[in-house]
Structure prediction request, 234 residues.
Amino acid sequence: METLLAFGDSVLKGVIYENDRYRVTDTAFYRQCAEALGVVIENKARFGSTIDKGEQIFQKNLEAIRESSGEYVIMEFGGNDCDFNWKEISADPYGEHLPMSTIEDFTSTYTYMIEQVKKTGKSPVLLSLPPIDSARYLKHISRGLSEENILKWMHDDRQYITNWHERYNIEVFKIAIENSIPVIDITSSFLEHKNYSEYLCEDGIHPNEKGHGIIADAIMQHIARRNITFDKAI
Prediction:
């Protein structure tokens, strides 16, 4: 049975938000895929992980990557990298505020990780990002803060959060193209639905359990289109 390693943030971890708390769902998309494919996925994803934190975890697991029996290493980053310190923005809406990872740092670190995976003889595979619901997310990040000030910083453009998030998602596709590696498009699978927010949690950013089903289907369709097979021998 092949063993694949995966690195990413809370989306890959399987974290959902409901009833005002976060928890890891038993029906996370990586679990669904592992069962369907007959493989083991060692999930190294961490809640709140940016590309820098992910790279630190990645470095600690380089030997495990080399020794893993599977060909592929899955990576999913960007959702936290494009985020901001909303408390600081709420306190100073006219100041300059940088994202958790600039586009330049995000791109260079992701590219470095891809190169390191290739050096181990494995094949890196990226996942694109699920879309977000700006209205829900704004309400979520504004709890205990000044939504008015956060909107001032956004120049009263509630769509800004979605647009900025998509900027990083586009970068994921560009990184994959520039490094000649596959990217599994899970974004389109959400956007094909008239109201994709039905597949997102209350916080507007984490896929809910139905959303994890959409991601699992997108991955399985990608695998089927490319006739990828896995060694299911025990």
Observations:
- The longest strand covers residues 3-8.
- The chain is about 45% helix and 15% strand.
- The CA atoms of residues 134 and 162 lie 6 Å apart.
- The chain has one domain: 3-225.
